[in-house]
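Thanks for the sequence, V.! I ran Signal peptidase I right away. Repeating your input here for the record:
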Amino acid sequence: MAKKEKGKSEWFDWAKALLFAFGLAFIVRMFFFAPIVVDGPSMLPTLHDGDQMIVNKFSYRIHEPERFDIIVFHASAQKDFIKRVIGVPGEHVEVVDNVLYIDGEAVEEPFLEEKNGLYQTAVNDFSLETLPGGYEEIPEGHVLVLGDNRSNSTDSRMLGLISMDQIVGKTSLIYWPFNRLQILGE
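Predicted structure:
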């Protein structure tokens, strides 16, 4: 009998350990980190279709998004998008002849320099007033996002400003494919 009770106790200990591990994994995935796969060409050349990344869901509980952060947000109930934060609250944003202007000052976008026009085939001029919502400046609790591949990206130019409530988190770690392993923008 003692051997049978010891076996039950051992199974119970294993079951508790597995339940704890699954619970911990669930909490980490739900509130701190989650994987995401890049779908499409909108962030080329920075991110490639099929890149697998980690989303930090905790980062924006501590601080607000900053210009050029790469974020994941809920574009719809079924689809999350990955884009780059270009404008933050209180700013006026416009692009003229593919030059970004924040509050009237030209801002360099170093992540676009390696493109050499490859992904920038069309001039995508816009100003904040011409976007959905017609704002004169980005209101509190919102950001303006653009894809790095401006000529092939569904972003704030079509979707409008992104509410902080829509943001899942910040992403900067590509972990797969292994030959693309890197931390972006750090």
